[in-house]
Specification:
Layout: E1 32-34, H1 37-49, H2 51-63, E2 67-71, H3 74-86, E3 88-90, E4 93-94, H4 96-110, E5 112-119, E6 126-131, E7 138-141, E8 148-153, E9 159-161, E10 168-172, H5 190-211, E11 215-220, H6 225-228, H7 230-250, E12 262-267, H8 278-292, H9 307-342, E13 349-353, H10 361-392
Antiparallel strand pairs: 1-7, 2-13, 3-4, 5-6, 5-10, 7-8, 8-9, 11-12
Length: about 400
């Protein structure tokens, strides 16, 4: 008896080893990654409640500076520069820098920056650059980590991908292994900001109680006044005169209060002291400021900071801004590349950021002077060595 020889099948294509598993019974549902609308509302509340956090976000946006692009072709470079300066970004603003301010604000606050390239009807130019709302965008993962789609809910409540994915911009901020689509700069701040709000609220309540002074007027009647019925009458007189005196004080005039008998006047709550809140508030603010990477002296916080420490903090801040620029550069390159191809330019280009200048110009001039002095001494030493070598020969 002969068995049919099984035909060999061609080898299957190699799949990525990190492809998404299908172990769950509803694997399709696990592919939808919402951008956490609840956290978006929480982060907005943090920025509204703590002005220091809001100032840090704006400082980072301003310190990132402006951006432009240069091409190998001078004609294309001039045209691209004009486009980047005058492109419409909505809400009465123009220019790539205005777009990046909104884009970076969303990226820092929510962990994701979402934008859209809007072409003209004839598909020959870019009409506008618009920022999207992160809380209305959802992500659907593909078969491997390299594939994902930006989606939205249509009128029927179905999660539908946007039709032109190539026109969308998406940039995650500080992506992690378990948060590949970015994390917010404010992620670790809710607990500390809650404590800070409790302290400020308690301070406000205490000052409202102790700042608006309340008095306790105690009258101790003598022997026999209760039997004669004088105690109640005298108490009413004291209350009436005290009320008139306080009313005159609220109106800006001075009125003396005169009482006969054993009368004691005390300030309610004068024995209680308001807790010193400077130490816990500073500890919390130090944690919040360290998370943003902004040096305290740039926020008007006069903590112990020497001149050398300020210089080192400025250098670290420059490194932080450079890292954020690297994150934004791919989105800018996508915009520039699409505009150049739409206009028929095939030349290369590069994104150019403005210099980050956090140092004093006098200090920079001294540094250049010291470098030139070192260079002069090095040249003199080289000349002296050559002379000695020539004399020795």
């Amino acid at each position: 008896m002969k068995f049919l020889k099984r035909k060999e099948e061609p080898a299957a294509a190699v799949a990525p080893q990190m492809s998404r598993s299908r172990e769950l019974p509803f694997g399709m549902l696990s592919g939808y990654v919402p951008l956490k609308k609840g956290e978006a509302r929480l982060y907005r509340a943090i920025r509204e409640a703590v002005p220091l956090v809001d100032a840090c976000v704006y400082k980072i946006i301003r310190l990132c500076g402006g951006v432009s692009a240069e091409c190998d072709d001078p004609e294309a470079s001039a045209a691209l520069k004009q486009f980047l300066e005058q492109v419409d970004v909505g809400r009465g603003q123009k220019g790539i820098n205005a777009f990046l301010d909104q884009y970076l604000d969303s990226m820092l606050m929510f962990g994701q920056g979402v934008g859209e390239i809007v072409p003209t009807p004839d598909l020959r130019d870019i009409a506008a650059l618009l920022c999207g709302r992160v809380d209305s965008i959802h992500i659907r993962e593909g078969e491997n980590p390299l594939d994902f789609e930006l989606c939205h809910y249509d009128g029927a409540g179905k999660l539908t991908p946007f039709p032109y994915q190539q026109l969308l911009l998406f940039t995650p901020f500080n992506p992690e292994t378990y948060e590949p689509y970015g994390v917010s700069l404010l992620r670790s701040m809710p607990f500390l900001t809650e404590l800070l709000n409790k302290i400020y609220y308690a301070i406000g309540v205490n000052w409202e109680r102790m700042g608006n002074v309340r008095f306790a007027v105690v009258y101790r009647p003598k022997e026999g006044e209760w039997e004669w019925g004088l105690a109640q009458e005298r108490s009413r007189q004291l209350a009436s005169e005290w009320s008139r005196a306080m009313e005159c004080t609220r109106n800006g005039s001075v009125r003396d209060f005169v009482a006969v008998g054993d009368v004691d006047i005390k300030v309610i709550g004068a024995d209680n002291q308001i807790l010193d809140s400077s130490v816990p508030i500073r500890q919390i603010l130090e944690q919040l400021v360290s998370k943003t990477g902004i040096p305290p002296f740039m926020l008007g916080l006069s903590w112990s900071s020497t001149e050398r420490m300020s210089t080192q903090q400025s250098d670290l801040l420059t490194t932080e801004m450079t890292a954020i620029r690297r994150t934004l550069t791919p989105a800018i390159e996508k915009i520039c590349r699409m505009w150049l191809r739409m206009h028929g330019y095939s030349c290369g280009f590069r994104v150019v950021w403005d210099d980050i200048n956090l140092q004093d110009l006098l200090e920079e001039a001294k540094a250049d002077w010291y470098k030139e002095q070192a260079r002069k001494l090095a040249l003199e030493n080289d000349a002296a060595e050559r002379t000695l070598c020539a004399a020795g020969q």
